[in-house]
Amino acid sequence: MAPSYPPAQLSSPAPAAVADEGWQEGFELPAHTSSVARARAHLRSHLHRWGFPEDLGHTAQLVISEFVTNAVLHTDTGRIGCSIHLDGRRLRIEVTDEGTQTRAPQPRSAGPDEVNGRGLQLVGALAQRWGVSAREARCGRVVWAELGTTG
């Protein structure tokens, strides 16, 4: 059984304007390995534009990297949708695919010599919550994580 870690709280609070309005952005990428870096760059750009601190950005980039990588490697989707939602208390990251797989992503135990297999364990350690849900009226799924924005 994988070890359990308490959810991470980030040290920098959300900017004051976020608490009142909340922000969200979405973008689509092709299901290609180069899209992992592009997803990180899009996310970093939006968080910077919203005035968010670097510690949140690093954690959020790791989460979106893991989700996009999994969509590219483990689904038969042609496109990947990414969205970020920000309010005063949390940052929600969602990655959608249009794949036909019926099995939801699950954390797995990677052996000490394995290079892969720890991504969802990292997400579980860093996020307040994360999960997977089916896309309504479409094939595919949504993998999401919520990161706290206060210390």
Automatic annotation (TrEMBL):
Entries under SUPFAM superfamilies matching the protein: ATPase domain of HSP90 chaperone/DNA topoisomerase II/histidine kinase (SSF55874)
Query: Which keywords does this Swiss-Prot/TrEMBL entry list?
Result: ATP-binding, Kinase, Nucleotide-binding, Serine/threonine-protein kinase, Transferase
Q: Which residues form a coiled coil?
A: none
Positions of region (Disordered) = 97-116
Highest taxon listed in the record's lineage: Bacteria
Query: Is Metal-binding one of the keywords?
Result: no
Report domain Histidine kinase/HSP90-like ATPase positions. 30-134
Q: Which Pfam families match?
A: HATPase_c_2
Instruction: List the molecular function annotations (GO) for this entry.
Output: ATP binding; protein serine/threonine kinase activity
Which PANTHER family does the annotation name?
A: ANTI-SIGMA-F FACTOR RSBW, ANTI-SIGMA-F FACTOR RSBW-RELATED
* Protein name per UniProt: ATP-binding protein
Which lineage ranks, top first, belong to the organism behind this chain? Bacteria, Bacillati, Actinomycetota, Actinomycetes, Kitasatosporales
